[in-house]
């Protein structure tokens, strides 16, 4: 799954790193479409955070069409039904399982109507699944090849998602969800779910091009993590539990490496362990919750 996001780039930096191949076979930078939801750089963004989202401009119901085929637009992370502009009650809609979206009254209409999007992030936080609530260790996952010096080279991870549009009079809200699938064997030691990551321009285009690629084929084309090239494999390091577990703590220290405590790492899949950090309880352990 994906519980927190981090993206510290400004809007212009994001646009420059989201270049895509247009229908005229030219590289284009997506234009930003602004609304009353404002994207701001975030170090530790929980669900309900406004995030940067890439989508086709044709299905956004904009008053003014973007000059680029794909555009960037701020959206609330955590999908709302079309009849709600504000969340009431306990909404857990920031992640959507691809295995279940065709059975969902919330996600299926967005999928079938072409409301496909890409959530832009530098990385995400994951809490390692362990048997005790107090033993969960958070990690920061990212693709930067420089390891813990990721601040110097702000790479982006593009997460496949769906969005919805809610209207209440003149008020229009965009909200989105991240698609997840079962984690492959190299990542399952951390958590049994992981987000669907789009690594290439072709993968991004295939997902966003809802007019030419219908939803069933688009789902089938979503890449599997175990098939991605070496340069796209996720890196990770442990982070400070006290900082990251506090959703109101939005500071750079949330992303910084820290010694891991209570980390149960499978000896079968420990090739990603970062040298130089302390991991306790290094014994084989396999745990998979029922739900």
What does this structure look like?
The protein is mostly beta strands and 291 residues long. It has a domain at 4-123 and 153-230: Alpha-Beta Complex (hypothetical protein yedk fold). Helices cover 11% and strands 28% of the residues. It is built from five helices and 16 strands. It has helices at residues 11-16, 107-112, 201-208, 215-221, 241-244; strands at residues 4-7, 20-21, 27-28, 31-32, 42-45, 50-56, 70-77, 95-97, 116-121, 123-127, 138-142, 157-168, 171-182, 193-195, 197-198, 235-238. The strands form three sheets. It has a five-stranded antiparallel β-sheet, with no helix packed on it. The protein has a five-stranded mixed beta barrel with strand order 6-7-13-12-9. It is globular and about 50 Å long. The two termini are 12 Å apart.
How do the strands and helices of this protein lay out in sequence?
Layout: E1 4-7, H1 11-16, E2 20-21, E3 27-28, E4 31-32, E5 42-45, E6 50-56, E7 70-77, E8 95-97, H2 107-112, E9 116-121, E10 123-127, E11 138-142, E12 157-168, E13 171-182, E14 193-195, E15 197-198, H3 201-208, H4 215-221, E16 235-238, H5 241-244
Parallel strand pairs: 4-7, 7-13, 8-13
Antiparallel strand pairs: 1-5, 1-10, 2-3, 6-7, 6-9, 9-12, 10-11, 11-16, 12-13, 12-15, 13-14
């Amino acid at each position: 799954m994906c519980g927190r996001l981090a993206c510290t780039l400004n809007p212009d930096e994001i646009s420059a790193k989201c270049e895509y191949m247009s229908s005229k076979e030219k590289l284009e930078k997506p234009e930003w479409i602004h609304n009353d939801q404002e994207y701001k750089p975030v170090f530790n963004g929980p669900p309900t955070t406004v995030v940067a989202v890439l989508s086709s401009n044709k299905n956004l119901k904009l008053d003014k069409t973007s000059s680029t085929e794909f555009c960037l637009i701020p959206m609330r992370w955590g999908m709302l039904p079309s009849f709600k502009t504000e969340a009431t009650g306990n909404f857990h809609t920031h992640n959507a399982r691809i295995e279940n979206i065709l059975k969902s009254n919330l996600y299926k209409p967005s999928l079938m109507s072409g409301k496909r999007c890409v959530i832009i992030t530098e990385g995400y936080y994951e809490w390692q699944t362990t048997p005790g609530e107090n033993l969960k260790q958070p990690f920061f996952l990212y693709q930067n090849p420089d390891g813990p010096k990721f601040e110097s080279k702000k790479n982006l991870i593009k997460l496949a998602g769906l969005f919805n549009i809610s209207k209440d009079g003149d008020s229009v809200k965009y909200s989105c969800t991240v698609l997840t699938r079962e984690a492959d064997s190299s990542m399952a030691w951390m958590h049994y779910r992981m987000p669907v990551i789009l690594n290439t321009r072709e993968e991004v285009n295939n997902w966003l091009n809802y007019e030419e690629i219908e939803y069933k084929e688009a789902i089938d084309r979503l890449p599997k993590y175990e098939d991605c090239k070496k340069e796209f494999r996720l890196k990770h390091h442990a982070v400070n539990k006290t900082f990251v577990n506090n959703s109101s703590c939005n500071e750079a220290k949330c992303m910084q490496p820290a010694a891991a405590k209570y980390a149960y790492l499978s000896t079968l899949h420990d090739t990603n362990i970062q040298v130089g950090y302390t991991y306790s309880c290094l014994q084989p352990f396999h745990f998979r919750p029922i739900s």
